[in-house]
Sequence to fold (478 residues):
Amino acid sequence: MQGAMRVARRLVVIVWVALLLVLIQRHLPVQRADPPAWPGAAPAATTEESWLGLYLQGHKIGYAHQRLAPAGDGYRTQEQSVLRLTVLDSEQTIRVAATAETTRDYALRSFAISVRSGVGDLHVRGTVDEGALALRLTMGAEEQKERLSIGAPIYLPSAARRHLAAGRLRAGERLTIQVFDPSAMQHHPMEINVEQREALVVDGVNVAAWRVRESFRGMDTTVWLDDSGHVLREHGPLGLVAVRESAEAAVSGWQDNAAFDLVAAIAVPVAQTIPTPREVSELDVRLAGLGATAPPGDGRQSYRDGTLRVRRESAAGGGTYERPYRGGKWRDELAPTPFLQSDHPRVRRTAEEILAGETDARRAAERLRQWVHRRLEKRATASIPNALQVLEMGAGDCNEHAVLWAALARAAGLPARVVAGLVYVEGVFLYHAWNEVWLGTAWTSVDAAFDQMPADATHIKLIEGGPEAHVSLLPIIG
Fold:
C-alpha cells in the first residue's frame, strides 16, 4: 500500500505536462472563428528569436526558446522548452520541442511536437491535408493515426498576435480563435482581449506594453506584448511566469538549484487528520477555492452549499451482469480513444488472458484491478499516458494505472471511465486519478493504484475524463 500512496502524489506531473503543452499553443496551430486574410500583418523578413525564463512561485524551473525564420514561400517556427521539477524525491526533467511550417500568411502546413521525460515519451505530427488535420501519434513502439476535420485554414497563435500588432493592439480589441490542444487531440476556443496600455519593467527599464488576456479551457493567461507583438512577460495558471530574457540569462540560474517540489507546493491542507483513510466509508468535507467548478454528483457523492458528502459504495452493491455489456446507454464508455486504445489487438488479447473466460462483470472488473495493481511498477512518469505505452512500459503512476485499467475494461466489454480529483494521503489531500465501472445498476469506483474496489471515501471526484480532460483541473490547482 505504501507504493500506492506514493503514486497518488504524481497526478499533478501529468497536469503540469498538459499545462506546458497549453502554453506552447501560443506557437501551435489554431483556426480562426472567422478565417481572415492577414491584411497588414507584419511579415518577418529575417529570423526572429526570443528567450523566456520560466518561473513557478518565485523559483526558476526552466526556459523556453522560440525562433521564427523565412522558409521558402512561408515560415518555419521552432520552440524548445526545458523544465525541472521534483515529485517527492524523484527529479523530473521535461523537454518539449515543437516545429511548424506555414505559408507566407502564416496558415499552417505541418507541425511536430515531442514531449520527452525519459519515461513515456510522446510524439505528435500533423499535416494539413484536404480540409483536415492528419495526425500521427507515436507512443513507445506504437503509432496511431487520427484525422480531424478543420474546414478552413488553420493558423498559429503567434500569427494572431502578429495580427494584433498590425493595427489591432488597442484597448477593447477582441479575437476568438480555435486552438488545437495536443494533450487532448481536440480543438477548443481561445478568447483574446486587449485590455490596456501600461508600463512594464523589463531588465530594470520601464517600457510601454500592451496587457492582453487570453482565456483557454477555463484558464486565464495575462501576457504583455510590445508594439511588434513580442512577448515581454506572461502570467499563467499554477503561478507560472514567463519572462523575456537574454539567452545567457534564460539558460542560467536554475540548473544548480534543487528542483522545485511541485507536489508539496500545491497539496491541499485540511483542518484535521484522518487516522485510517483507506478504511473511511463516509466523509463530509467543506470545500473552498473551486471557482466555477462544482464536484459532479452521483450515487457516491453529493455537493450542496460548499459541503461535499461522500459515501463509499457497498462492496456487494451495484449489481452485475454477464459481460460484454449489451445495453446502448454507455456506448461512449466502451469506445476507444487516442489514449484508451481498447480496440487494439494487444489490449484485447491481454484483457482476455487476464479474465481467462470469466463472464461475470463484477468479478471481471476485480480481476483486471488486481492484475493492473500487480503488473505496474509504481514509478513517477512525466508524459501524457496511453494504454498501449503503459502496457509496454509496465510502470507508472496513478494516471498510468487508471488509463490501462479503463482500456482493458472496455476491451472486455465493461463500460469504464477515468475520473480525477483528490485523495487523502499522509495528512493532506493530493491530486489523483482512478476509475469507475458500470455494473448494471450503478457506477462503482475502482482504484488500481490503491488496489481498491470500491475506493475509500477520501476519494473526491472533481472531473470525469481521461488525460485529455485533466487540464480542466488547472483553474483549481494551487
The chain has a mean pLDDT of 82.
